[in-house]
Structures are given as C-alpha cells and as structure tokens.
Amino acid sequence: MPQITLVQYPGTRWDQTFSPPCAKVRIALAYKKLEFETKNVATPGQAKRYNPRGRVPTLIIDEERIVDSTDILSALESRFPEQSIQPPDPALRAPIKIMEDWADEVLYFYLVYLRWMDAENFGRFRALTIDKNFPPVIRSIVAYFARREVRHRMDGQGVGLKGIAVVRRELERCLDDLEAILGMQPFVVGESFSRADISIFAVIEQLLDATINPIEAGLVERRPIVMAWCERIRGVLSGEVPPEAKPMTPALVGVEMMKETRELPAAQIDDPSDAVADATKETAAEMPAAAEPTPEPEPEPEPEPAAEPAAEPADEAASAENADAEPDDAPTEADEEATASETKGAEPASEAEPETPEPEDEKAEDEKVEPEKAEPEKAEPEPEEARTEDEAASAEQAEGEPDAKKPEGDAEGADAP
Questions:
Q1: What is the mean pLDDT of residues 180-184?
Q2: Distance from C-alpha of 192 to C-alpha of 111, rounded to nearest angstrom
Q3: Are residues 101 and 67 in the same domain?
Q4: Cis (ω within 30 of 0) for the bond into 57?
Q5: Mean pLDDT across the stretch 393-410?
Q6: How much is the pTM?
Q7: SS3 for 65?
Q8: Nearest CA to 25 among 75, 88, 63?
Q9: From start to end of 3-52, where are the E strands?
Q10: pLDDT digit string, tens, across residues 95-149
Q11: For residues 50 and 9, what is the distance between their CA atoms, to the nearest angstrom?
C-alpha cells in the first residue's frame, strides 16, 4: 500500500480544512477509502517546503508530488480505479468536467470573496484561523497582508471588481441553477456519484458554515433540493447510500419535491403512484366542470345557379333584319368626301381614256385565288334620317356623273366604219 500525505490549510479540527480545494481532495480520498496522513500549514511560506509554488493542496504519493486539486483527482482515479469517481460513459465526461470547473472557478471565488472582503465575515474567519495560529503581536500584520493578497487575487480573477451585494446576488443565481439541476436527477451529472459532486459539495459545505458566513448559509438552507442532495452525498461518503441511484421518473421527482416543501406524512409517500394519483384527483375536483359542447348546425346546401334565359325570338329577328338592311360596303365619310371632289373636278366622258377590260380567264383565276373575306361585324343600324340624307346625296352625284365607262370593245366598235 503506497504512503499518501496531504498538505493542506487547517480547519477548526485536525481532520478539517477551511480550503475548498483541500476539502475536495479529502472527500475523494475518503470515498476511495484510502488511508493518508495530513500535514497542516498556516502560510504560503510554510507550503513551499512541500511545493515550490507555495500552494495547497499538495498530495505526496510515495515520492511523487502532485499539485492542483483537479490534477490530484485525476491521479487518484488512474492509480486507484476502485470506487470510481469518473463514470465509464464517455458522453458524461464533458458535462462532469464542466461542472467541476464551475465549482473551482465560480463558486469557489464567490465563497473566498464573501469570506475575506465582507468585514463581518472576515472578523469571524480571522478569529478561527489567524488568531489561533499566530502570536498576538503579529496577528494584525498577518491579517492585513493576507487580506491584501486575497484582494489582489480576486481583482485578477474579476470577482474583486464587483461589490459585495452583486457577488451575493450572483451566488444566489448559481444556487438556483444547482437547485434546478438536482430537481431532475439525484446527482449533479446523471444517476451516479462523480467528481462533479465532490467539487461542488466541497464549496457548499463551506458555505453552510454559519460560524463564519451566516448569510450565505441561510441562502443554501432556503433551497430544500440542494439540502437533500447534501444529505445524499454524506450518505454516499459514509457508505449508507449507494453511489448509483435508480432513474428518477417524473412521479418520483414530484414526490421528492412534495416531501421537501409540503412535508407530507409518511403514509402518503409510501407508494409514489398513490401520491401522484391523489394529487391528480384533488386538482380535478378543484377544476370547474367543463360545459358540454353545443353541436354545430349542419350547413345548408347552396342553391344551384339559375340558367340564363335564352334570347327572345323577336330580338333575333330584329337583329337579322338590321343586318340585311345594311349594305355590305357602307359608305364612310371619307368615301363621300372623295366622291364629291371627284364629281366637281370630273372631265367629259370623251376626254377620259377607256379602260381595257381584263380577259375572262384571268378574272376567273383571280376569283379562285382571292381569299375568303371575313364576315364584317354587324354594325348598329343607322337612324332613318341619316340614311335618307345619304341616299339623296348619292342620287344627286349619280345625276351629275357622265355615263359609265364603256368597255374597250364597245369603243373600238364605235370608231370602226
């Protein structure tokens, strides 16, 4: 069996510590049931005897020295895999690492800042640590320089740039997040105890120390799910509670929360299904009865559209008469003006040159080739008065025009002897 030595800052007793990182290593060693020796140091100068960096915790396994709490837990897991703190499922390693860093880099600095920067908390902490380990002559000097060094570290990390009220409010939000996570599962990551539970529990235990920080202890105590989880971790470390829990169904989660908030009698929580059924019945009894739905009336069939009436015979007959009455080539105003101008400037028929009639064969061919004319659109009938005037004008023009041009054959016959 290897010889293991833990170098740490002391607590109120020889087997305790005020340092969350040192507590983190102590919890891992206790869970793995490894025997170890404790060496307490009061200042960074004393810690340099075991670690050149002057930091704690430092774990010495035989002759090997390991610093930093996260590296120490990894070394313990690789050397002593029994009572594993790292589940075998690779999908859980990332969330476990995230939650461990959240405890080391967020919760830890909130605790240290509120313990050292809050004047009342620091007065109580000094009485339990500095005043017990240093002679009265130098207590004030040690307290001053130690607090200044802690403030410098807090400023470098970023928490020291905030006020006490802001840091305390952010701590409350972190506790609310932890409450929500533990309300869905028995441990921080999944159904098994892991190094994530160790890292967070090491800080929560320090926050619950009402002899130093009573306000922060009250913040934790007001969250029943977190308090129930703390009891579960203590049971795992003592061996009374198995490190692996059965999956918590929604019914079990609801019963656990009812036990913590309503404090139901034991008879009501023996069977989770009965408790959930009773709660469901009570809720249903308090709800008003729902009104019966009124059946919707069936839609009436839409009437078919009436057929359009056929055109009356009288209208069709009148349209046909109007179409017959109109000439195929109705004269337009432009034709009338052209005819009038031709009539005025017309010369005697004797001076006009006779036109040569086209041969009958060519006329027949033209008639065959000529395409069919599109039927003209039926125009509206003109008023009778307008037709009368047009007919009169046409008659006058016809009287004033010379005789129609004679065909070329007739003209040649007249000239012949």
A1: 96
A2: 26
A3: no
A4: yes
A5: 46
A6: 0.61
A7: strand
A8: 75
A9: 4-8, 37-40
A10: 999 999 999 999 999 999 999 999 999 999 999 999 998 999 999 999 999 999 9
A11: 13
Q: 161 and 122 in one domain?
A: yes
- Interval 361-380 mean pLDDT: 46
Say whether both 222 and 253 belong to one domain: no
Q: What is the pLDDT of residues 193-218, one digit of tens each?
A: 999 999 999 999 999 999 999 999 99
Per-residue pLDDT for 308 more than 80?
Answer: no
Residue bearing the bigger pLDDT, 289 or 167: 167
Kindly give, in sequence order, each residue whose CB lies less than 8 Å from that of residue 54, ignoring residues fewer than 6 positions away: 44, 45, 47, 48
Q: What CATH code is carried by the domain that includes residue 53?
A: 3.40.30.10
Q: How confident is the model at residue 300 (pLDDT cuts 50, 70, 90)?
A: low
Give yes or no for a contact between 104 and 97, defined as CB atoms under 8 angstroms apart.
Answer: no
Domain extent for 102? 86-246
What six digits make up the tokens of 193? 């105890």
Q: What is the edge-to-edge ordering of all strands in the sheet holding 58-61?
A: 37-40, 4-8, 58-61, 64-67
Whether 224 and 254 share a structural domain: no
- What backbone torsions phi and psi does residue 155 show, to the nearest 5 degrees? -65, -40
Residue with tokens 């499922």: 89
Instruction: Give the C-alpha separation, 106 to 158, whole Å.
Output: 10
Query: Which two tokens mark 358?
Result: 């086209």
What is the helix (H) or strand (E) element at residue 221, kind and residue range? helix 214-221
Claim to verify: residue 233 and residue 156 sit in the same structural domain: yes
Distance in angstroms (rounded) separating the CA atoms of residues 131 and 137: 10
* pLDDT for position 299: 58
For residues 28 and 196, the answer to whether their CB atoms sit within 8 Å is no
- 321-351 in b/e form (b: 16+ CB < 10 A) is eeeeebeeeeeeeeeeeeeeeeeeeeeeeee
